[in-house]
Amino acid sequence: MTSPLRVAVLGASGRMGRAACAAVDDADDLELVARIGSSDSLDQVADAGAQVIVDLTVPSATQGNVLWAIEHGIHAVVGTTGWDDESRGAVRSALEKNPGIGVLIAPNFAIGAVLTMRFAEIAARYYESAEIIEMHHPDKLDAPSGTAQHTAAAIARGRADAGLGPIPDATEKDPDGARGALVEGVRVHAVRQRGLLAHEVVQFGGTGEQLILRHDSFDRVSFMPGVLLGVREVASHPGLTIGLDGYMDLG
């Protein structure tokens, strides 16, 4: 019988962290060996013999946590946002020195959100216009969301593959930024409102028609199947993977 995979959750006292701890606890093939809060030493992770960390902390801490894990030969599944080219580059450099380690940075762990991004890339080939509206709770620290940025990049790839030019927009004056952020050539509008959790609407427009893709997470348990997928697969994917779709057979 195969021994359970030993997992440590960083950010265990947060809402996502608590949900991840419960999901790992409930999985027969996984063992939760460490619950790490903001004041706890990462040495507890190594002392517990963790093979994988799940990082659900804050943007200011996540890069250091992942670099520490790589240096200690521990795989990392990361749901914390705020990553940029520089921080991802630091992870790639660290992984070059530890080629057997896998790191997954997932903008969104909800399976439906991952599918929405893939569908958006396919649809982008066929529509002149595209915009994204992402809606989250007001305690979220960054905007636009990592999911929206990942979706915008997917749309940009789809448009590039189809040879499409810039999305048409005749706006000349927008002193208050009403048109939203421009991400990969796609307008992204961020809503922060009490009562929301994590929601995304992707709107495509063509002559005489509109296509709307929408995904809603109403509870953090919606992210747990993706978290567990990442934990189970990360060791089989050495190097850095951006997006849960890298572990899914989506064509």
UniProtKB/TrEMBL annotation:
Chain residues that bind NAD(+): G11, A12, S13, G14, R15, M16, G79, T80, T81, A106, P107, N108, F109
Residue numbers annotated as active site: H136 (proton donor/acceptor), K140 (proton donor)
Domain Dihydrodipicolinate reductase N-terminal residues, every copy: 6-109
Keyword entries, A-Z: Amino-acid biosynthesis, Cytoplasm, Diaminopimelate biosynthesis, Lysine biosynthesis, NAD, NADP, Oxidoreductase
PROSITE patterns assigned: DAPB (PS01298)
Subcellular location: Cytoplasm
Subunit structure: Homotetramer.
Family to which this protein belongs: Belongs to the DapB family.
Function recorded in the entry: Catalyzes the conversion of 4-hydroxy-tetrahydrodipicolinate (HTPA) to tetrahydrodipicolinate.
Protein name, entry field: 4-hydroxy-tetrahydrodipicolinate reductase
Taxonomic classification: Bacteria, Bacillati, Actinomycetota, Actinomycetes, Micrococcales
